[in-house]
Write a structure and sequence with these properties.
The complex is a heterotrimer of chains A (446), B (282) and C (323). Chain A folds into four domains: 177 residues, Rossmann fold (3-Layer(aba) Sandwich); 72 residues, Beta Barrel (OB fold (Dihydrolipoamide Acetyltransferase, E2P)), CATH 2.40.50.100; 73 residues, Ubiquitin-like (UB roll) (Roll), CATH 3.10.20; 72 residues, no CATH class. In chain A, strand 7 and strand 8 form a beta hairpin. Chain A starts with 22 loop residues before the first strand and ends with a helix. Chain A has 446 residues and is α/β, with parallel strands linked by helices. Chain A is built from 13 helices and 17 strands. By secondary structure, chain B is α+β, with helices and mostly antiparallel strands. Chain B has a two-stranded antiparallel sheet with strand order 1-5. A two-stranded antiparallel sheet of chain B has the order 3-4. In chain B, strands 6-9 form a two-stranded antiparallel ribbon. Chain B starts with a helix and ends with a helix. Chain C folds into two domains: 122 residues, no CATH class; 161 residues, no CATH class. About 2% of the residues of chain C have low confidence. The chains are: A alpha/beta (446), B alpha+beta (282), C mainly alpha (323). Strand 2 of chain B pairs parallel with strand 1 of chain C, so a sheet runs across the interface.
Chain lengths: 446, 282, 323
């Protein structure tokens, strides 16, 4: 069975906690805090003021540049503040606070469950609708989708790849979406295919989700050009470059090359469903499925949550925090961001809230590197994490740049596998940020 | 006997041969260098701290010798005396600078600034600050993992385990500035060095609004501006909810210290003003 | 709230690998060879092994406790591995004080002065063995006669390689497969090829090591011996026997599987591992055929150890997206 060519690790997938729970709607919060920077790129520019009334789906902030995304009101009510609010890491960011009054949607949004298959729009119109709906990559990277779909001059897309891998342990939001909203997903895929003018799409799903593979394969028979492929379970297969390599055998060259350079455009499975809703139902991105999970959580669930809902209310819905030491993650345990502020809101890129407790919350004590080369073996980008770590301690940034740090995808395989418990990625991430800064400074000087 | 003689002869021949090779190689690869660079290097402190902006003392010495105008060059470690002696040796004019000392502008000790989380990652300020706000609710304060301590070549900074804050030993500090650039929060500032290491400074860099600051830390500057009003020398400015004392204008009159409601203005080596006036006024 | 919020960057989970587990696996992989050794040479083997391990652990503890400071490192089991490997490299009847000297060289000269586990340039057990070989050549090369019936007739007292060097072996009638399944004279760890291969299989299965270094070493030795043999002998059968003889005889297997694969002193990339393995194979054969010693494995490993930093600097893994 196919997988990517270099490295990779096998974390225990721990999807058992939440995989059987069907998607449920989370209660509407009384107050939402909607940050203006929920995506990669420029923050959105706020279009409302304190005291304004908004309906669900109304534009409250407009994309602040090409690489940016619109933001819509996730609940109906009154704007009570436009100010700095702490995010999940405690850092203050601009956000719009809305106090809820009922649940009144914009009339233009089609909220019926009826499946609309046919789409007669032109590619440019499709991209425009996706842009208007503020759709970003929902796997966690939050790259604005309309930017991906705008193929640069001189490049040509050959295949659309749909990421249904969900290689991140614990998380099941994409899995549940594929099972429960398979039809919408596939319509979304055909719309995306039309948007970038390709006649072939491949949906990659890891073989730890056999029922999702079967389900999508059965449905895909009705659609032209869509193929569902099972992949050997291996982390980080959901990485864009790894997935392209696993499905097409083509390797995206090192940065600044992009997937389009090998003719591929990659979209997440949940993103495809959001695209369906945006194009066929005129529904902007105001909610998403969030997996709330953890071994010691009383009732792990997959909750359809409006953006801006406080994370703590999701945890409360799932039985509350376990006692003792806890480590709360926005995302899964391999790449999720640690949270220090549970009052912070759910955002577009939040595919799950993972709670590690007790011993799982702690880090092992680091010891001396024994040069076992396990990190080199595990690195899916063919880098040498041990070397980058050592150079980082010495602050030898030029050596680090020479050793291709910019290729690092921060997947964490190196640190996961290190028998000496060295926090390799802590150092590598710092080195990557520093080197990227140095490169940017050098480029602006020129 | 023959063996012995041959051995000695062969060894001598090898020795002479090797010496000749060395001699010609040395001649061929000889680099002409100004001998004054060596002399200047000897006059410098030899700490190789990089505070001057050069890779080490030798590179700095080379720049001193080669440049005609050395007014932009300064070795903070050696200080004015060192610069003067180098300049007179080279027959150039050295820059003159106020003696400075590094100052850690955060007073959020463990008792003043409650810990809300426990950081379990790599103990480095740069790494922790890229991860999240830190163990307290103040996004600006000292993290206490000692990146500055590591950067200091003179052992002049330590993290006090009781307060969890970095502290500068002004007697050892050479104002090389390594800690200033090592601190990811930009807390450390080079300030004018008074005799006996006296100092008055705002021990906070939080730009949060007063209410937010107060919630996070009892010793934070809330930007109330009382200090600026009382200052007779115009040394204090309040910007972005934060007071700043210009050490070039401050005369150590201590009036602001008494005025500060959160005791964010720190005083070193000075006795507090007698509190009588204040009590009378109230 | 009764919660303590722990914050650290991703990844937030860790695999089940640990230094101690890896070391324990190496120890387990050496047990079959040790058992065969006890069977062949008697209980004296255990005395040598125990002395070697005890001395290594004691020296490491003392150095850490009194000279280096900090937390003791003996719990990572690396000193036990060094002790066990050192014992594997000695004759069964060696005086115990020489074992202690060997342990001292391994820990106090080859390992701890460089900064302890992970920082040493040379494999401690090999360094100690080479030291002993030079300092106490007669004790190190006088091998006890195996106490197994039906065996003592052939080359008791000297290793196969020494016999081969002295042109005592007739490769035409020599039964290589018998040597593989059976027992030969030599150091503790050299006696049984199948037991070593069993250990190799275990290490591969547990993913402690990859196949690259052992295969590169053994492949080079076999190839070199075959080419040399093709010039020296007439019939293919003898050439094959000669090649197998070099593969199984002496310390080739022990060295390739357990000594050359030492994490600390071997390269970090698979390409580097192959270069390193081929280097060891070549040097071993050169020493075996033209050197003063009958066995060249330890010297070869030691020499290649010193090249490892260079290999690590210049041999990079294949980066993703670069062909």
């Amino acid at each position: 069975m196919r997988t990517f060519p270099i490295g990779g690790v096998h974390p225990s997938d721990n999807k058992k906690w939440s995989k059987a729970s069907a998607i449920e709607a989370m209660e509407l919060p009384d107050v939402v805090v909607v940050p203006l920077a929920q995506h990669i790129g420029a923050p959105a520019v706020v279009k409302v003021a304190k005291g304004d009334k908004v309906k669900v789906g109304e534009l409250i902030a407009e994309a602040g540049g090409f690489v940016s995304a619109n933001i819509h009101a996730p609940i109906s009510g009154t704007i009570t503040a436009v100010d700095l609010q702490p995010n999940g890491q405690g850092l203050r960011q601009m956000a719009v606070t809305i106090k809820r009054e009922g649940d009144e949607w914009l009339e233009s949004i089609d909220r019926s469950e009826e499946l609309v298959r046919d789409c007669s729009l032109e590619p440019a119109e499709i991209v425009a609708r996706i842009k208007a709906a503020g759709i970003v990559g929902m796997g966690g990277a939050t790259f604005p989708t309309h930017v991906k779909l705008s193929i640069p001059e001189g490049k040509r897309a050959e295949v659309l790849i749909i990421n249904g891998v969900e290689c991140e342990p614990y998380l099941t939001s994409d899995y549940r979406t594929m099972l429960e909203r398979g039809e919408q997903l596939l319509v979304g895929v055909s719309i995306l295919m039309k948007a970038i003018s390709v006649d072939r799409a491949v949906v990659g799903v890891e073989n730890n989700k056999p029922d999702a593979i079967e389900h999508l394969k059965a449905l895909a028979k009705e659609y032209v050009g869509i193929e569902v492929k099972a992949l050997k379970t291996m982390y980080p297969q959901g990485g864009e470059k790894q997935l392209i390599a696993a499905l097409t055998g083509r390797e995206v060259p090192p940065p600044p090359a992009l997937p389009i350079d090998v003719g591929a455009v990659v979209c997440n499975a949940s993103t495809a469903v959001a695209v369906y809703e945006a194009v066929q139902k005129n529904k902007p991105l105001v909610e998403r499925v969030v997996t709330v999970t953890g071994a010691s959580l009383a009732e792990p669930r997959n909750l359809l949550t409006r953006f801006g809902t406080p994370v703590e209310s999701l945890i409360a819905r799932c039985g509350g925090l376990p006692e003792g030491d806890v480590r709360i993650l926005n995302g899964g345990p391999m790449m999720g961001r640690p949270m220090s502020n549970l009052a912070s809101p759910v955002m577009k890129g939040c595919s799950g809230i993972t709670i590690l407790s007790g011993k799982d919350a702690l880090r092992g004590e680091p010891s001396a590197c024994i040069k076992c080369a396990k990190c080199v073996e595990a690195c899916p980008m063919g880098l040498e994490p041990y070397l980058l770590q050592r150079y980082t301690v010495k602050k030898a940034w030029d050596e680090i740049e020479r050793n291709d740090i910019t290729s690092c995808i921060e997947c964490g395989c190196c640190q996961f596998t290190c028998p000496a418990n060295i926090a390799l990625l802590d150092y590598v991430r710092l080195a990557k940020q520093t080197v990227m800064g140095i490169i940017r400074a050098r480029n602006t000087k020129k | 006997m023959n063996t012995l003689i041959y051995t000695i002869l062969i060894l001598c021949a090898i020795g002479v041969g090797a010496a000749l090779i060395l001699y010609f190689v040395a001649r061929a690869f000889h680099v002409e260098e100004d001998p004054r660079i060596d002399d200047v290097e000897k006059m410098l402190p030899g700490a190789n701290c990089g505070g001057c902006g050069f890779a080490g003392c030798r590179a700095f010495a080379q720049a001193m010798v080669e440049r005609d105008d050395i007014s932009e060059l300064y070795c903070a470690v050696g200080g004015g005396d060192c610069m003067k002696s180098v300049a007179s040796y080279l027959g150039k004019v050295a820059a003159e600078k106020q003696p400075m000392t590094a100052t850690v502008r955060c007073g959020g000790s463990c008792d003043k600034r409650p810990r809300t989380t426990t950081y379990a990652g790599t103990r480095s300020c740069a790494i922790a600050s890229a991860t999240y706000i830190g163990e307290t609710n103040c996004a600006y304060g000292c993290l206490g993992y000692g990146d500055c301590v590591e950067a200091c070549a003179f052992g002049a900074i330590r993290v006090n385990p009781e307060t969890g804050l970095a502290e500068v030993d002004a007697d050892k500090c050479t104002a090389c500035g390594a800690c200033v650039s090592a601190c990811p929060k930009g807390i450390i500032e080079l300030r004018k060095r008074w005799p006996k290491n006296r100092a008055i400074y705002v021990s906070c860099v939080s730009k949060d609004k007063g209410a937010v600051t107060m919630k996070a830390c009892k010793a934070g500057c809330i930007g109330c501006g009382k200090c600026a009003k009382v200052c007779e020398f115009g040394a204090i400015t309040v910007e972005n909810n934060l007071a700043f004392i210009d050490s070039a204008k401050c005369r150590l009159c201590r009036k602001c210290v008494a005025e500060c409601p959160t005791a964010a203005i720190k005083m070193i080596g000075l006795a507090p003003l007698p509190p009588k006036e204040k009590t009378e006024n109230q | 709230m009764a919660n303590k919020f722990i914050v650290a960057s991703a990844p937030h989970v860790h695999g089940d690998l640990s230094t101690r587990r890896l070391m324990a696996d190496v120890i387990i992989a050496l047990l079959p060879a040790l058992a065969v050794s006890v069977y062949v040479f008697g209980w004296g083997v255990l005395t040598v092994t125990a002395t070697s391990i005890a001395c290594c652990v004691l020296f490491e503890y003392l150095v850490q406790r009194f000279l280096v400071g900090g937390k003791t490192t003996i719990t990572n089991l690396s000193a036990i591995v060094t002790g066990l490997l050192l014992a594997m490299n000695m004759p069964a009847n060696i005086p115990l004080w020489i074992v202690a000297v060997g342990a001292f060289v391994a820990i106090c000269v080859a390992k701890m002065p460089f900064g302890g586990l992970g920082k040493n340039l040379f494999n401690p057990a090999i360094a100690a063995r080479v030291f002993l070989l030079i300092a106490y050549p007669s004790q190190m090369t006088t091998f006890a006669a195996p106490s197994v019936e039906g065996f003592a007739d052939a080359y008791s007292g000297a290793t196969m390689l020494a016999a081969a060097k002295a042109c005592l072996v007739d490769f035409g009638s020599y039964d290589a497969m018998g040597m593989f399944a059976g027992i030969q004279s030599g150091s503790l760890g050299e006696v049984a090829a199948f037991a070593l291969l069993l250990g190799f299989a275990y290490l591969l299965l547990r993913r402690v090591i990859t196949w690259h270094i052992p295969v590169a070493v053994l492949g080079t030795i076999a190839l070199f011996a075959a080419v040399y043999g093709a010039f020296a002998f007439d019939t293919p059968h003898v050439v094959l026997n000669y090649s197998l003889f070099h593969l199984i005889g002496g310390g080739a297997l022990l060295g390739a599987i357990f000594m050359a694969t030492d994490y600390v002193t071997s390269p970090m990339t698979t390409r580097g591992m192959v270069i390193y393995g081929v280097g060891i194979g070549l040097l071993t054969m050169i020493i075996r055929l033209w050197g003063a010693y009958p066995e060249g494995m330890s010297f070869a490993i030691l020499i290649m150890n010193s090249v490892v930093p260079l290999i690590n600097k210049y041999v990079k893994p294949r980066r993703f997206g670069k062909k």
